[in-house]
Each structure stands twice: as structure tokens, then as C-alpha cells.
Amino acid sequence: MLLSTGSLLMIVGGFRVAHEPRRLSTGLILLVAVALLGSGAGVFLAGPDMGVPSRSEWIAATAFGTCVVGMALVANGFAVIRHEGRSPTTCTPLVVGAGLMLLATGLTVVAVNPRVPAWTTQLIAVCCVVGGYLVVHLIAFAGYALLYSNLPDRCEADAIVILGCGLNRRAVTPLLGARLDRGIRAYQVAEAAGALPVIVTCGGQGDDEATSEADAMARYLAARGLPMNVVVRERHSHNTAENLENCIRELALRGIPAERVRITVVTSNFHVLRTAALTRRLGIDAQVVGARTAGYFMPAAFLREFFAVLATHYRRAHLAAVTITVAALTAVIANAALPPR
């Protein structure tokens, strides 16, 4: 049953990737498929005599795994801050890692002390359910983002749109440089297939920048041999939605109408899935490709993107989860307030 259901879900996920890969829910379908196939394979290999772990063994294994992940995130948080400085994004691994370590401590206390008050066990159980809900969504999001970013480049693009991500005064940062190099490769793939795409550099001028991102990006491309007659500069946007909307207007002014434009959007690999979902919401025929990101920065970047997706997608499901969590916490608090029998 596990193998059959997992195989069916894998077929459904593959069909969705082939026909419309920009749906975020495909990541959840593929994650469930992989989990069922893995469980089915494990049961098959273990045979009928496989024992069922006890409650204490489950708790110990969960606490150990949670603690290891938490410690790894805390260590990564210090590494990111050392390289990139302190900011809400770079501090995210520290906060999440500390929370996981605290949860692991609570699980350990419940496992080793049978006289823990019932409300404490209930509180930790609620935290575990909420954490599990978030972890499942995070794994599905990050895994599918990496899968989506490695799909083959489309060859028939009318435009290669490179999204900005900030400058160091006038200089292109390593993160933006990786996007520009990825955009050059996408342009070369389209050109080799006989297409004649333009390259759109997107980004306005920030308060701490000496020039617009679009101009700095155009200079970077020129220094690497791209002809300037194929570069279109979009200098007025300050976020991804404005990047895409202004880009479509710029292309329409050059005779490529919005209803039939085909674009390849270039961003960082951690940003591809949210950008792809945005192009789908805006009704743009687009593929989004991702540039590689430094390994030490990946956890912080994916956590930031994940929390952004939580705020913008599947709001009804998340609202239902929040409502259930609040009701459960209220019940736990009420139970703790009751006098002991």
C-alpha cells in the first residue's frame, strides 16, 4: 500500500512538473511520495518481524535529531553573521536553531522524568506538532526549489530578465554577479537555439547605492562581451513584483506584447520558487532559473524565503493551523490553571 500510493503520487507530481512546474503544492506532493516510497521500501526490506519502537524510543530519537539540527543551524548562524554582518536574515538560523534546541530539551525532560505535569507534556506536544507542520512545509519548499532551479533552460525566450539584489555602492556583489553569470548562460542557450532574446537588467537605486542596479548590471555584462544593443535597463523597481511588471512594460514598448511574451527570469536558487509562483500569479509565460549561492548562506536564505512564502501563499491553510494551535494552547493553559487533584 505504501509503495503503490507513493508511486501514484510520484506520477502525479511528475505530471505537474512537466505541465506547470510553478505550483508550490507540487513540492508537498513529491515530499509525501518520497516519504511513502521510503517507508514502503523500509518495511519491505525489514520483513514481517520488524519491531515497533516504543514511545520513549520515538521521543529520544526525535529529541536527538532535533538537537543536532538546532546545533547545526546555530553554528551556521554564527558563520553567516561573520561573513555577512548582522541582519534579520543572517540571524534567522540562530533563532530557529535555538528554538529547536529548546524543544529538544523539553522532549528529553518528558522522556526521562515520568512525573512531569500533564500540562507540560501537552505544551511540548503542541510545540512538536506545530514544529512538524513547519518543518514539512520547509522541506517541501526547499527541496522543490532546488529541483525547479535545475530544470533545463528554455530555448525560445524573447527576453532574459535578471533580477537585482543590491550593490556595494557602485560595485556588483558576488550574489548579483552569480545571477548575471547565470543570465549570460541562459542568453547563450537561447542564442544557440536560434532565438534573439534581449537581456533586461532590473533594479532601481537604493539609498546606500551610488547608481541604479540596472546600470551596474549592464556595465558588468558589457565587460564580459555582451553587445549593449541587446540590453534593456529597467531602473525603477525596488522589489520582485515591480521588477516583473516594469519589465513587461519595457518589453511592450519595444514591440513585444505582454500577452505573448516568453521570458526567462534569472535569480538566486533560493529565490526561484517564490518568483516562479509570482510569475504564474501575474499571468506571465516564464521560466525561472537559479544561480548558485554560497553554501554557508543557503540555510539563512532558504529560511528567509520560507517565512516569506508562509506570509503570501496558502493563507487559509496556515490560518486554520494557527486557529487550531491557539485553541490547543488555550486548553493547555486552562488545564495548567486547574488546582491539583
Quick rundown:
The chain is an alpha/beta fold and 341 residues long. The chain has helices at 2-19, 25-46, 55-84, 88-112, 118-149, 174-192, 213-223, 240-253, 272-281, 298-312, 315-337; strands spanning 159-163, 167-168, 171-172, 198-202, 231-234, 262-268, 285-291. It contains 11 helices and 7 strands.
Written description of the protein model:
With 341 residues, this protein is an alpha/beta fold. It has 2 domains: 56-149 and 315-337, no CATH class; 159-293, HUPs (Rossmann fold), CATH 3.40.50. Helices cover 64% and strands 9% of the residues. It contains 11 helices and 7 strands. The chain has a 5-stranded parallel β-sheet with strand order 5-4-1-6-7. It is elongated, with a radius of gyration of 24 Å. The two termini are 46 Å apart.
